[in-house]
Amino acid sequence: MNITVVGTGYVGFANAILLAQHNRVIAMDISKERVDLVNQKISPIEDREITKYLQEVPLDLTATTDDVLAYKDAKYVFIATPTDYDPETNAFDTESLESVIQRVIAVNPEAVMIIKSTVPVGYTKGMKERFGTHNLVFSPEFLREGQALKDNLYPSRIVIGEKSARAQEIADLLLQGAIDKEAPVLLTDSTEAEAIKLFANTYLALRVSFFNELDTYAEMNGLNTQQIIEGVGLDPRIGTHYNNPSFGYGGYCLPKDTKQLLAEFESMPQKLMTAIVASNDSRKRHIAHQILKENPQKVGIYRLAMKKGSDNFRQSAIQDIIHLIKEGKVEVVIYEPVIDEDIFENMQVIHDLSDFKETSDVILANRLDDELLDVLDKVYTRDVYSRD
């Protein structure tokens, strides 16, 4: 089957690899640099499983910047372009999606488009009406940065926002390349599928915020965070997963999805959605305050990426903490191997880890790494389990 995947970020490229095991897949991207990497079998994102599959698994995958070539013979077009949250409009910026939809219809009106990007509730229904097409389906993605392909190979569930034979075919396509073929498949209406995505991510943000506030309480009262978390989590209704304190939730999804869901409520009665967003802001301010009260001369930031095995630091909580620390007139330096430049947003990037350790009075590490064990007396982290 001829399939095109638009976008080679975490969502798009993981889906392209998944589908290219059994289908002819074209990955379409506006970035020639990313396209060239894919055609050289080099992953444009940091994901161990993707790198392994590119090198070891037979894949029928090519990449191009030519949208006519990409769309003209495709039966399915999976769209995974960025939909960042725009605080000016209190909504996702879906311009890139609409541009792709319009272009696919112009080149190949018979192609069925599957939206993988996160969208506002009611978006798919509205776009069908706007563009006069029924060939538009929403299917939310549930994956973790750095483990995008793994989460598609072992999916927690597959949700297709349409109840039809072609919806089942789309689900079967996604299961075809999966290792775990017993994943639950849920066919829903399109608007319900959109709500599933936003509520799922907001619940994850709620859980992050809960354990972060638990940790703040423990820290301020001189208590052992790990002991409390373990005692709480042994209740099977709560569980011992996704419970590691951090500097706050960040990344591609949780910040924008929580704000979008909050905006969706508008004049409806709610308290929890507001509290989740506010809690994350409070956590970052607390972390910055804990650093500033020690009056350091120079604060070192160990990694801008929030998770091990990830190279993404877009919307990472540490960036907001950096701005708060700089407001306190404290110099900030950065150690981040994925940055080649010597300056990042007017801050010095130190490429030699030993120099970074020596020059920093305090080192902020969202996740503790073994390479920091020799300077633990300088490290400030709230990491308990070295995961999540």
What would your notes on this structure say?
The longest helix has 31 residues, at 190-220. The model has no long low-confidence stretch (mean pLDDT 94). The protein has 14 helices and 16 strands. The strands form four sheets. A six-stranded parallel sheet has the order 3-2-1-4-7-8, with helices on both faces. The chain has a six-stranded mixed sheet with strand order 13-14-12-11-15-16, sandwiched between helices. Strands 5-6 form a two-stranded antiparallel sheet. It has two domains: 2-188, NAD(P)-binding Rossmann-like Domain (Rossmann fold); 197-380, Rossmann fold. α13 links the parallel β11 and β12 (331-335). It is an alpha/beta fold.
**Alpha carbon gyration radius:** 22 Å
Biggest sheet: strands side by side, in what order? 3-2-1-4-7-8
How is the main sheet built?
Answer: 6 strands, parallel
Which fold name fills CATH's third level, the topology of the largest domain?
Answer: Rossmann fold
In the residues, how many domains can be counted?
2
Instruction: Kindly report the average pLDDT value.
Output: 94
User: SSE string, helix = H, strand = E?
Assistant: EHEHHEHEEEHEHEHEHEHHHHEHEEEHEE
Q: Compute the separation of the termini in Å.
A: 36 Å
Label the CATH architecture of the largest domain.
Answer: 3-Layer(aba) Sandwich
| Structural category | alpha/beta
Helix content: 40-55%
Low-confidence stretches: none
Number of helices: 14
